[in-house]
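User: Design a sequence. Structure:
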């Protein structure tokens, strides 16, 4: 169920989905940590540039999962007097730190090592070790990616989007980060394997070095996308027009609301929004009664899973109704 549906209709929400996110992050962390250790050992044994790049990639991913687990924990704190809209935006802060500090670090190490290998090439050996590690890594990364893929696909279907659009648009930065990093990990393994295989077959370290650089560029692209989306949500990401229209329809159909003249719905955390509206209630209630009715309506809206805070004020008589 989308945020717009939980705002504009009856109670509901994807609490099971929130649980699966934690499972997705934990599974990704365990897989990346094991893979990082294996790739590091293989990189020392083989000396392959692409293997070293993939080791840096996996260590970056492992550190990224730690940041994402912190993001989930801190963002889940309940609203209080100082933070009436909750702490959900912390998820975007920690996710941005992960993207900047770890993805970029992994990209820098991979690119620098590849360039160094081009300028001062060194022969690699024990290619069988590299192939075995890549095979195991591909399986483990594939399992982790499958978990993130299933969750993203389920959310895409519920939101009426295709998979990639949902990965970009989702308000959940941990799911987006795990999906992106696992996808990059699978692609990176294929690139690195091709580079090592070409090195093995030709005896030239150049394809291996190029593979390392390509893995770094892949990580840099992922970092730019993740930083940009987290920035959007920190600055203030509003509902897309189609979802906003659903919220307008839901509010206008409410028995207490005669007119809706202003609406602002902004994400303040994963699957959580702040709703601000100006409404004209049914009837002509005195001022003290109007305040009580607005407060009851706010509490009703806040009972819906997606609405962390609702702020309603009376609409002026000369303001046009939203359509």
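Assistant: Done.
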């Amino acid at each position: 169920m989308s945020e717009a549906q939980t705002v504009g209709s009856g109670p509901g929400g994807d609490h099971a989905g929130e649980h699966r996110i934690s499972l997705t992050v934990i599974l990704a962390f365990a897989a990346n940590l094991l893979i990082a250790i294996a790739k590091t050992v293989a990189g020392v044994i083989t000396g392959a540039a692409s293997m070293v790049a993939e080791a840096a990639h996996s260590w970056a991913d492992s550190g990224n999962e730690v940041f994402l687990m912190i993001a989930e924990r801190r963002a889940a704190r309940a609203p209080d007097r100082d933070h009436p809209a909750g702490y959900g935006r912390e998820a975007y802060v920690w996710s941005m730190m992960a993207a900047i500090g770890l993805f970029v670090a992994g990209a820098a190490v991979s690119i620098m090592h590849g360039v160094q290998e081009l300028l001062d090439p060194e022969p690699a050996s024990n290619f069988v070790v590299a192939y075995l590690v890549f095979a195991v890594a591909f399986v483990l990364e594939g399992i982790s990616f499958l978990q993130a893929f299933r969750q993203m696909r389920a959310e895409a279907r519920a939101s009426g989007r295709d998979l990639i659009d949902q990965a970009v648009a989702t308000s959940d930065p941990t799911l987006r980060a795990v999906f992106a990093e696992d996808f990059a990990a699978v692609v990176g393994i294929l690139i690195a394997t091709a580079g090592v295989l070409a090195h093995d077959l030709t005896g030239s370290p150049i394809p291996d070095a190029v593979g390392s650089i390509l893995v770094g560029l892949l990580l840099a692209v992922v970092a730019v996308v993740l930083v940009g989306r987290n920035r959007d949500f920190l600055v203030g990401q509003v509902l897309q027009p189609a979802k906003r229209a659903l919220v307008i329809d839901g509010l206008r159909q409410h028995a207490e609301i005669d007119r809706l003249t202003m609406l602002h719905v902004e994400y303040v955390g994963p699957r959580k929004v702040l709703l601000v509206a100006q409404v004209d209630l049914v009837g002509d209630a005195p001022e003290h009664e109007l305040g009580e009715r607005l407060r009851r309506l706010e509490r009703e809206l806040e009972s819906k899973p997606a609405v962390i805070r609702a702020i309603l004020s009376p609409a002026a008589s000369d303001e046009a109704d939203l359509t």
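The chain has two domains: 3-235, 241-314. The chain has a mean pLDDT of 85.
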